[in-house]
């Protein structure tokens, strides 16, 4: 496979992040919208892709394209090597070993995989070790009030299928998880604690170590949604102590249709499979089958080969920039964004620490969701779009959290490594005139 497209970013030694240099690698950022330069502030929904990622996928499809693990010919061998090299690269990015990383089509698929595998264990399917995951009526699954629907609905469904009880940990007005409440919600009946590393609405980095400790003291397994942390923070999943974690490629400069599921070895080895079919078996008769060890046990059927290779290119790009530098840059943007929003009359920022006296300082990524008094979120978004500014509007797949704050929708601005100070300022300037434009200044 040819070397990926080079750039000053990839050739430079570790340094402070220069977003203007980074932007040279992202073709879409040079386009205009409605006659205005694009200001892309919707990276929490999906990130833009550098040339290195685009080129990696195109190169595979035009040079090595073949089914992996299935052939003895040259293309099949090359494709398999690239596919497994991609697994090792992406696993290393989150601190894991290759055998601890299962390819999925995205984080939602990974969460459903785990929920259905636990459901299969509850039905007595799988090896004897699977019994440790079986749920009985009255057992408890704990989530938080801030979860994305993808880390809520699968657990609702699992509870309905097994008779388990779904409980939640509340969030304070400043957006932080109430750890005192968590200590009372997590009990000796708790079997699963599932929570997000970073809220896609609040941007707060949640206390993973503390929640893992509470779950472990109850004998529960932990599942971490790392979709909003993997693109923005240095990530060491084994170091965090979680049992399982999921992340999504398209949010971390990679393509659509690819994600990762990390699991501790003993957890993956004990879980029964969910999807079954080709490629995940050792022997098959007309009456029964035996399955490969993880990760292949969970990878039935045709795999997302070109996407995995492109995701590995995205990970190499992020590594070259440096995740410490990425986080420092976005943390600076987040402060600029939040302080600017506070200065605009009629704007309420969700999860603002100013709402609680003595609120602890928390780490955040570069996003903020807010409400504009008297103006619907969709109207705000359309007006910003007319200025070339892309933001997210709606409940961001976190409807219960919005109801917690008395809203049905909000506007969300989110940054990435390619976002500049000038873009944040253009956004704040455009937003400052929204209420006057809609006659909502009274």
TrEMBL record:
EC number: 2.8.1.7
Keyword Phosphoprotein: no
Transferase as UniProt keyword: yes
GO biological process, one term: cysteine metabolic process
UniProt cross-references to Gene3D superfamilies, sorted A to Z: Aspartate Aminotransferase, domain 1 (3.90.1150.10), Type I PLP-dependent aspartate aminotransferase-like (Major domain) (3.40.640.10)
Any one Pfam family match given in the protein's UniProt record, by short name: Aminotran_5
Known role: Catalyzes the removal of elemental sulfur and selenium atoms from L-cysteine, L-cystine, L-selenocysteine, and L-selenocystine to produce L-alanine.
Family: Belongs to the class-V pyridoxal-phosphate-dependent aminotransferase family. Csd subfamily.
Record-given protein name: Cysteine desulfurase
Organism for this UniProt entry: Microbacterium pygmaeum
